[in-house]
Amino acid sequence: MRHRFSLARLLASTSLVAVVAISLGGCTAMSKLSEATGSVGPRAEAAPTDPARAVEVYGERYRANPKDPDAALRYGQALRANGQRAQAAAVLEQATIANPGNKALLAQYGRALADNGNFQQAFDVLSKAHSPDNPDWRLLSVQGTALDQMGRHEEARSYYASALKIAPGDPGVLSNLGLSYMLSKDLPKAEEALRQANASPRASSRVRQNLGLVVGLQGRFAEAETIVKADLPPDQAAANVAYLKDMLSRSDAPRSAPKRTPVASLSQPD
Q1: What is the number of other CB atoms lying within 10 angstroms of the CB of residue 238?
Q2: What's the mean pLDDT in 226-240?
Q3: What number is the average pLDDT over the span 56-62?
Q4: Which residues of 170-197 are buried (b: 16+ CB within 10 A; e: fewer)?
Q5: Helices 14-24 and 103-115, interaxial angle, to 10°?
Q6: Which range (2-11, 93-102, 192-201, 204-213) has the least confidence?
């Protein structure tokens, strides 16, 4: 396998741009009701940990009362976690119509729109989910990823900078910033941001995989392999290394070759 990569070819892939925001759009863990400002009051019972089971449980609750914002929020979140992105956006759109001004619903709807590639609409909806006098740093970061999807990298970085003023050193925001630099082909700055993210004790496995990707794109594959294998069981480490090799090899493929998701599948979303 060759490790002298054509960065332009890799960064030209539309699938690369698409996966960055989707993968970095934020946590969808079912144990957390709201990822944003204006959380609806939580239920007393524990949330189902299995996404399919969560869809079933919250779907029944939603169908019993589609105008209940709590039911709609949980159902939409469950659908997103289960990969039913179009249905999640549809449910949350109706919920925002029935509950105008509900910031938690707007935040979740904006994320669902980003999942589906509706980046300008996602950005606009997320702008209504918080305000300049009371910004939510998580939403600022998601808005940044939407802007990166649209090729507005400098503007995206201003959103990451604002998020980092509220949450200094957050590894997720720094990872977004690093990938933003990667998309504009500034690999040294991308590596710098991702190394800062990876130094955090709260850094996820995905941050390490993104760092490994950027290091590999600079031709330092042995170092990249060491990064993506860190702190992982042998089988998962081997799978991540294999994926990294496959994804990096695509940078030498002809432009007409099939394009596959190259970044975020290295690890599961947080």
Answers
A1: 12
A2: 86
A3: 94
A4: bbbbbbbbbbbbbbbeebebbbbbbbbb
A5: 150
A6: 2-11
pLDDT score recorded for residue 45? 60
Q: What does each C-alpha distance from 146 to 68, 71, 162, 236 come to in angstroms?
A: 28, 27, 15, 30
Q: Which two tokens stand for residue 58?
A: 């919250």
Helices (H), 27-84: 51-64, 69-81
Q: In whole angstroms, what separates CA 211 from the centre of its chain?
A: 15
Residue 82, Cα to own-chain centre: how many angstroms? Answer: 15
Structure tokens at 268: 């599961």
Averaged pLDDT, 138-167: 96
Q: Which amino acid is at 248?
A: L
* Mean per-residue pLDDT, 256-267: 35
Distance, in Å, from the CA atom of 106 to the CA atom of 21, rounded to the nearest integer, reads 18
Structure tokens of 197? Answer: 């993210």
Q: Which residue has the tokens 């997103």?
A: 80
- Supply 207's token pair: 């941050």
Confidence band of 51 (pLDDT split at 50, 70, 90)? confident
Other C-beta atoms lying within 10 Å of the C-beta of residue 14: 9
